[in-house]
């Protein structure tokens, strides 16, 4: 795409030509969900451009549309930073969708409302509500962009001055902290910590999680969580199917393929042929926390409405220093046979016994 001078573009370039340029770049995206998402986003961006009557706002919207087209073009050319950015926008790591996914957690419910601290202004003097799902997201390192929050800081934020405690010496000397000021400090701390959370795109029950990933069939969740985010669309499972297995087995020989049954060949998971694209989605899985509704001890068959845990997919891209068992390939028959042959061929030599007295003393 040729370089466009933005101040002149608002006068010379028609909005419909920008829309066609937008769709032309969207059609070349490698994943179906990305094409559907940015097709809707292109329509919304151009409609906002057409309905704007102020010239200054129209020029700003023109800049946003041109930058979006340039970003998708760079992603189609294989730029890693640009492709990661459009993945973050499409899956709610950045932009408007991020706040729409966080809204059910930050609003809370009427049953969890706290008591007002000031009777004159009841609604404005209530403390923020931390739902069980939000507490799990705040205290888990898998869903945080920074260090995980300490559970004790939820009830007692560290930014509160010592005067907030009426039994402290500062409160006895200078007086207790104003209830209005305490409420404002708690709300600022609540908003700042919620901005550091990567919202999940789906909520699953505990029985759905398996070692290899997410199974397509799940138990019924709580009614308030069934329609959360992309619930019911299996978007998370679609990403894991695109990534595939971390370590695929070696290709079979002709004799092994003849002996292998057709059922075994059908069970081999299909993945995207491009390794570069698989690595980009693996990096995305590190920023996609998996919110799991756990089952209580009394009712193990059905998930409990107030117990949540945050997990990370086993297919997510590990850290460079991380080398755990879950990221290591499973040993096949050839590897086991080679290991047995090496252990049986090499005999353990007995330790040498020192003869001299000085050697015995040093050892």
Describe this structure in words.
- This protein has 363 residues and is mainly alpha-helical.
- The protein is built from 17 helices and 3 strands.
- It has helices at 6-12, 15-26, 32-50, 55-76, 80-90, 96-107, 132-138, 152-155, 169-174, 179-194, 223-226, 235-243, 254-259, 262-266, 275-285, 333-345, 357-362; strands at 203-205, 290-295, 303-311.
- Strands 1-2-3 form a 3-stranded mixed β-sheet.
- A hairpin with a 7-residue loop joins β2 (290-295) and β3 (303-311).
- α2 (15-26) runs parallel beside α4 (55-76) and α4 (55-76) crosses α5.
- Mean pLDDT is 78; it is low at 1-12, 215-221 and 262-268.
Concise structural overview:
The chain is mainly alpha-helical.
Helix content: 40-55%
Uncertain runs are: 1-12, 215-221, 262-268
Mean pLDDT: 78
Shape designation: flat
Major β-sheet annotation: 3 strands, mixed
Number of discrete helical segments? 17
Radius of gyration: 28 Å
| Assembly context of the chains | single chain
Strand order of the largest sheet: 1-2-3
Q: Work out the number of β strands.
A: 3
Proportion in β-strands: under 5%
SS-derived structural category = mainly alpha
How far the N terminus sits from the C terminus, by CA atoms, comes to 75 Å
Helices and strands, in order, run as HHHHHHHHHHEHHHHHEEHH
